[in-house]
Amino acid sequence: MTQVHKNILRGLLVALGITAGAGVLSVLMQDSMMGRVTGTSFVIVLAALIMLKIAAALEHEKKRPAAIFGLGVTAVETVLVLVLIWSDVLAFVDSQKLLSSVFALPIWSLPTTFAVRAVSVRLSRNAGWVGIGFAVLTLVTGAAAIWGPIETEEEWYLSTGLSVAMGLAVSASCVGLGAPPEAKLPPRYWRWIGILAGAGAVTLGMYAIWAAKGANEEAYMRTASLPALAAAYVGFANIALFTPLNPNQRWLLIATLASGLATCVLIALAVFEVTDDRDSVRYISAMAIPTVCGVIALAAVARFNKRPESELTAPDYLSIYLACPRCRSEQEIKPGKSRCRYCDLMFDIKFEEPKCPHCDYLLHMIEGKTCPECGAPIVKQVLRTDTSS
Questions:
Q1: How many CB atoms within 10 Å of residue 172?
Q2: CA-CA distances (angstroms) from residue 119 to 177, 298, 388?
Q3: CA 231: distance to chain centroid?
Q4: N or C: fewer beta carbons within 10 Å in the chain?
Q5: Per-residue pLDDT of the chain (389 residues; tens, 9 = 90+)
Q6: Orientation of helix 215-240 relative to helix 250-271, angle to 10°
């Protein structure tokens, strides 16, 4: 148990004791102040439990940045909830805006955590940084929407929604971009269509929200919907193509991409009022349903194709039986440096599990040509035998 775990556990036990004592007093005395103390202690207990769960990831190097971010968000959320509990006493606090912040922060932190985690994976590093950039933009616009003046509240909320949608689309388009040459991934230059389209959608959308007025605003919003749909589809296709599938399962990917493309086209036609409103809703629903089902099916098939990690772990590597290459006597040899019990030939036994160099996924008994976790090609390493000694 690390020092962080010990400190969180110590705080948890203290908060539990305070909760128990304050709860008893609030019931017996019927005092609202003691009720607030009980609520405060309960929130601290809940926060400590969440932090204990998150802190377990601190021991993993690649998960550590996301774990630190998660601990920070949990701490901020706890402070906001505590201020909300005591808002009646703190006259300067706007409880309505504070409540909105309490609900908005966890929603914002979930995709942001994925972005921070993606930075630690080589194939998604650029996508992670792009996601963090959009997360900062979303945080600023969202805070302005909640705490800013009422006159511009609608504009800030629209800006937040645009930032979230395009942040997800552009980040998805960036997955695999800038991968190292040894990954041997196909170039997929069409990903830049999604990236540039997302940037264009943000530019046009922000102009329509803040600068355009009247009919021009509607025209700019409709125009912005085209690059937005393009960015969303390119990001969707880019992620879908990383799904590890067997050759006889490729039809599922093709069908899902086709129905997704049809959905985007129908949405574009509806935005420009090419089709009747009622017909548009019906047609879009007809294509969206198989798209969603296809995404679920791809996730299920990918999970099924992903072999469980080998049960043979480091503690199981206790010994190996082999015949001494000099005296040919069979014996049990333990890992590390040892010697033949009959002729004193020196051995240096080392076990190393096959893992993906990009995401560290265990590749034991994987028959495919790509990593089931990140989709990178599996490169078989050539082992060299040193016989000089």
A1: 24
A2: 12, 24, 42
A3: 19
A4: C
A5: 566 666 766 766 666 666 666 555 555 555 566 667 777 778 888 888 888 888 888 877 788 899 999 989 998 998 888 888 877 766 667 888 889 999 999 999 999 999 999 998 888 899 999 999 999 999 999 999 999 998 899 999 999 999 999 999 999 999 988 877 766 778 889 999 999 999 999 999 999 999 887 667 888 888 999 999 999 999 999 999 988 888 888 899 999 999 999 999 999 999 888 767 778 888 999 999 999 999 999 999 888 776 554 444 444 446 777 788 888 888 777 777 888 877 888 888 777 777 777 776 777 666 667 777 677 777 665 444 444 43
A6: 180
What tokens does 132 get? 């963090």
Of how many residues is the chain composed?
389
Distance between CA atoms of residues 295 and 165, nearest Å:
18
What CA–CA distance (Å, rounded) separates 222 from 337?
A: 71
What single-letter amino acid sits at 349? I
CA distances to 281, 282, 314, 340 from 226, rounded to whole Å, are: 18, 20, 53, 72
Q: What is the 3-state secondary structure (H, E, C) of the chain?
A: CCHHHHHHHHHHHHHHHHHHHHHHHHHHHCCHHHHHHHHHHHHHHHHHHHHHHHHHHHHCCCCHHHHHHHHHHHHHHHHHHHHHHCCCCCCCCCHHHHHHHHHHHHHHHHHHHHHHHHHCCHHHHHHHHHHHHHHHHHHHHHHHHHHCCHHHHHHHHHHHHHHHHHHHHHHHHHCCCCCCHHHCCCCCCCHHHHHHHHHHHHHHHHHHHHCCCCHHHHHHHHHHHHHHHHHHHHHHHHHHCCCCCCHHHHHHHHHHHHHHHHHHHHHHHHHCCCCCHHHHHHHHHHHHHHHHHHHHHHHHHHHHHCCCCCCCCHHHCCCEEEECCCCCCEEEECCEEEECCCCCCEEEECCCCCECCCCCCECCCCCCCECCCCCCECCCCCCCCCCCC
Q: Tell me the one-letter amino acid at 270.
A: A
